[in-house]
Amino acid sequence: MFKPTVIALGLTAVLSGCSVTEVCPPTANVDLPKSSVPAKSSASVKVIVLPVEISYKDATASRMKAAMLNKLEGQVLATGTKLIDRHVAKKLNKEIRLAEKSGRYNNKGVPIADYAVITEINSSDLSRAFTKRRTYKDKDGDYHTIPASCSFRAEVTANAKVYALPSMKLVKRIELKGDESAKNETNNSRCPINQSSQNTMARTASERAVKYSMELQEMLAATAPVEAMRQCEKSGYMVRIGAGTNRNVQPKADVDFSQSIKNSRGEIETFTLGKGYIVNNKHDAVKPNYSWVSIDEELAQKIHAGDSATVHTGIQCALADIDCQLEKAKNKVKETAGL
């Protein structure tokens, strides 16, 4: 089934951590056995994100609500899910929130969306701490002075609930927590901070509360069947999956593979097969309705046409955003450890 001359090269590419950048040519097709229980592509659903609400007075409320709403909408769009226009969401806000309380959404005709996201900020806090000026002597006998300073920390918590429409069945409850820290030199032990700085810290903490939570994105993640396999000397093994730019698939995105099997009692059992990533070539590897996923030799030996592939968007960070990169690394460690 597989060409042994490329096995070592394929393993080297995986173990070295270097991403595959070239799609194997059509002449490198490999026959795949077919799954007995083939997966289907997840439908591209429609989501309405209601305006974020806060039940208490806060001078930074408008900034927090706007920041959180923007990030929630961004997460929906990142999965290739259709987002209902914000003006429509605002118009239907009261109606859907009343339906949340009654448990019924009385709509006529085709539902406006498949899911509604209702978010409320529960708490926001700004703490401050003063540190006195101090002097210390290093091991060489030299003296150093650390100026007096104030440290500030903004913390925001919220709950996002995802409801199926029109049933108003609660599908998922997501806890959101974010924070932002700042420090400046001052001799004023009261640690004053202007409103503009408070607004900025509250906005950043609200953005991080959503940005560092992957639950909504994971719920809406694109799922598609494995369609074909190729194997070539330069790029090793890769499979084609039935999701592409139509679901906002991006190069290097992680992909989880699973296989469904019917047992002797007629029940469908699902087993994890392994992981891969979208080939790092936006032009060649990601097409409107499909994309190519780099996999290792071990997974290639197990995978079938029709097995399920789930594409994970993950936390998106700028290279210079150290806090975000650290959070992304934490999530990766948790994922690897199965936490």
UniProtKB/TrEMBL annotation:
Protein species of origin: Vibrio palustris
This protein's name: Uncharacterized protein
Query: Per the record, where are the segments of Polar residues compositional bias?
Result: 184-202
Annotated stretches, region: Disordered: 181-202
Q: Which PROSITE patterns match?
A: PROKAR_LIPOPROTEIN
